[in-house]
Amino acid sequence: MHATAADGGGVERGVSPVIGVILMVAITVILAAVLGTFVLGLGSGVSNTIPSATFDFHYVGGVLTITDTGGDVFTSDETASLNVTANGTTQNWSLPVSAGEEFTVGPAGQLNTTLASGDTVQIVWLGNSGKSSIIAKFTIP
Q1: Helix, strand, or coil here: 120?
Q2: Which of 120, 58, 119, 126 is closest to 92 using CA atoms?
Q3: In the chain, which ranges are E strands?
Q4: How far is 65 from 82, CA to CA, in rounded Å?
Q5: CATH fold for the domain made of 53-139
Q6: 20 to 30 A from 71, CA-CA: which of 2, 22, 50, 61?
């Protein structure tokens, strides 16, 4: 008499333990890869995020005043430079920069340039890792 699947004597009984072993090996390999990445320092750039802050732009009489109104504080720990750019001219905003700090653009401003309608002023963050981002932008009305 032959064993059949109906009476529990079929070949299928050995399939479940094999699949279980394969899944355990796969999980072990994935865990080892993730842990190895961080142990070897390859995951160090994963948490390197761009700081986030909000800025208020106030334009009166040819002078633009930029005010940091909150968010992350820009320090030399993660920031290589924080630059304000207008009309092809760039000026470094001295670190640290936190809520309440102001920067002026215009004649006799920290960034000495003449602004006109349609000009764009940008705040550009450059991180110590070399990553950069435009974190705020304003177009002169």
Answers
A1: strand
A2: 126
A3: 53-60, 63-71, 79-86, 89-92, 102-105, 120-127, 132-139
A4: 16
A5: Immunoglobulin-like (2.60.40)
A6: 61
Question: For 30-63, what is each residue's pLDDT tens digit?
Answer: 888 887 777 776 655 544 688 889 999 999 999 9
What pLDDT digit, counting tens, does each position of 63-109 carry? 999 999 999 999 998 899 999 999 889 999 999 999 999 999 999 88
Dist. CA 39–CA 130, nearest whole Å: 23
Cis check: omega of the bond before 96, within 30 degrees of 0: yes
Q: Tokens standing for 5?
A: 């699947």
Note the pLDDT of residue 47: 47
The rounded Cα 87 to chain-centroid distance in angstroms is 26
List the domain boundaries for the chain.
5-39, 53-139
Q: Is the dihedral of CA 82, 140, 101, 50 positive or negative?
A: negative
Residue 70 — φ and ψ, nearest 5°? 145, 170
Do 89 and 110 touch, CB atoms closer than 8 A?
Answer: no
